[in-house]
Amino acid sequence: MTTTTTILEAVGVPESVGRAIPDAATRETIGYAPIHTVADLDDAVAAARAAQPAWAALGHAERSRILNAIADDIEANSEELAVLLSREQGKPLNGPNARFEVGACALWTRTAADTPIEPEVVFEAGESRAEVHYDPLGVVGAIGPWNWPMMITVWQIAPSLRMGNTVVVKPSEYTPLSVLALAEIYNRHLPDGVLTVISGDREVGAAIAAHPDLDKIMFTGSTATGRRIVEASAGSLARLTLELGGNDAGIILPGTDIEAIAENLFWGIFINTGQTCAALKRLYVHDSQYEQVVEALAAMARTMPLGNGLDEGNVLGPLQNEKQFDIVSALVDDARENGARIVAGGSAAPEHGPLFYQTTVVADISDGARLVDEEQFGPVIPVIRYSDVDDAVRRANASTQGLGGSVWSQDVEAATAVARRVQAGTVWINQHGAINPHVPFGGIKASGYGQEFGVAGLKAVSAPKVIQR
């Protein structure tokens, strides 16, 4: 079995030519990532363009076989990949974190391989017949984030490869080693040029967005960057899938059994230490149960193990980088200074390391506060009172973003009726953020457009062709 050191040796570069990548928890250097340039990007795109016809010609069955072999290899190296991911990104090995993410990489790779996509007969009458076929687009440029670097990269590359495209990937500057390690596993099984990782800075990301020889761009990240990608891609008219920021609202309906939902509610908020686009970011609770919910969350926040991710007992980790730590700190400080009640946490936790922040529950806060209106992307939840369900829905929908939302109640029929009114790409009932590789996922409003996963995700990286007779 390949060891983590061997994977690092395979993907890293010497200090003299690379960029130091720190351990998220300790800030000690893990290794050195390549510093690729726009010229390297151009070479990668040219190689991908040259490799694409032969890759497409293999056909669905052979590409699916290769992807399943890749999934096997990910599983065979899962512990080493998880340790590297935990160190670079910060998420603990246990809980819904590093081992979970690596397992998801194998699962999403297999699902992309095994999901059938057949020509669709859309019209048939007598001798007339129209079918829709799905052909490769060509070359896909994928730009990934730092919060779930391996898993989201797989969301981008596995469907693209399955449909006969070739792919050039740019990981976040914060987490390149994890993506390089994942690609190293993939490339054991792929022909040259089919998948290339370009480990560069924002200049390289901007060049992907504007590249004239890319047929599709997939991006997960901030809304501001997504808008720049839309503008930059206008010249090439590359197809776009954009999974952008979220400020997901949850609504707890009156009469809900709080004890029954507490664990799902906590992890809907604090999965990956809150650093998840589709985590629950604002929680609306009826007056009748407000204090009960606040205290239930605070009790879990005070006792949930926080610390270095390599410690098997921890399930919450650090903020991944200094910029995000500063954002979280500023939002909590602003809430405190404007009269909000800090029920749990509320400050840094330097005893664990430089970028650790206490798991924080904030009460007596409302819409208009920065912590409510802005995406915190960290281990903090503002809990907001409401007295009328219609008003709670209105406030939940007031955000410019619309990635996810949730409704909580044992009355599933009532919860479903409210969920139909919440403006989001996905609305969960009695859970938040749960994803399924067969179920389409994507946002609305300023949270982006385009869907991933399942048949919808395969179609999104394909060129539909109508054959009519």
TrEMBL record:
CDD domains, A to Z: ALDH_AldA-AAD23400
Residue ranges annotated for the Aldehyde dehydrogenase domain, each copy included: 23-466
Name of the protein in its database record: Acyl-CoA reductase-like NAD-dependent aldehyde dehydrogenase
InterPro entries: Ald_DH/histidinol_DH, Ald_DH_C, Ald_DH_CS_CYS, Ald_DH_CS_GLU, Ald_DH_N, Aldehyde_DH_dom, LUC3-like
The keyword Oxidoreductase appears for this protein: yes
PROSITE patterns: ALDEHYDE_DEHYDR_CYS, ALDEHYDE_DEHYDR_GLU
Keyword vocabulary terms for this entry: Oxidoreductase
Entries under Gene3D superfamilies matching the protein: Aldehyde Dehydrogenase, Chain A, domain 1, Aldehyde Dehydrogenase, Chain A, domain 2
Annotated transmembrane regions: none
Keyword Cytoplasm: no
SUPFAM superfamilies the UniProt entry points to: ALDH-like (SSF53720)
Organism the protein comes from: Microbacterium saperdae
Superkingdom of origin: Bacteria
Recorded family membership: Belongs to the aldehyde dehydrogenase family.
Positions annotated as active site in the UniProt record: E243
